[in-house]
Amino acid sequence: MTTDHSRFRSGTEYRDNAAWRLASHWQQRAQEARPAGHLRGVKLALAWVLGCTMLLVATLLGVLFSLVGLLMLPLVRRRMKKRMEQARADHAEDIGPGWQKSQQQNPHQAQATDILEGQYEVKS
């Protein structure tokens, strides 16, 4: 950011401005708050190493959990298949041994019971 010095006649006149003094005071305080030279570099390097280590660990954990999830898919699929078969078996009706004989004797009657929900047959 540049300052417009055209309003001031001499080079030192703008330094007498209250805002300029306040800014230079803040600048001095900020320089005093900085740690010593080589210690600052060590802290920065440690911060980078810590940050990179955390990123690597997070990436490895993400890959590990993804692989575990992919390896579990077949097991979960098998378990769901068994559960669906059990549910079908629980809801199935026992048709009995005489079902085949009644089908052969009257095939139109069996056709009427094969109609699914949503399928309609118009009788005239």
From the N-terminal CA to the C-terminal CA, the straight-line distance is 93 Å
Strand content: under 5%
Helix/strand class:
mainly alpha
> Total number of helical segments?
4
Region (Disordered): 87-124
Keywords: Membrane, Transmembrane, Transmembrane helix
Transmembrane segments: 45-76
Biased composition (Polar residues): 100-112
Structure report:
This protein has 124 residues and is mainly alpha-helical. It has a domain at 13-88. The protein is 69% helix and 0% strand. The chain contains four helices and no strands. The protein has helices at residues 18-33, 37-91, 99-105, 107-113. The radius of gyration is 42 Å and the shape is elongated. It starts with 17 loop residues before the first helix and ends in an 11-residue tail after the last helix.
How would you summarize this macromolecular structure in one to three sentences?
It contains 4 helices and no strands. The chain has 124 residues and is an all-alpha fold.
Mind sketching the topology for me?
Layout (H helix, E strand, L loop, with lengths): L17 H16 L3 H55 L7 H7 L1 H7 L11
Question: Descriptors for this entry?
Answer:
124 residues
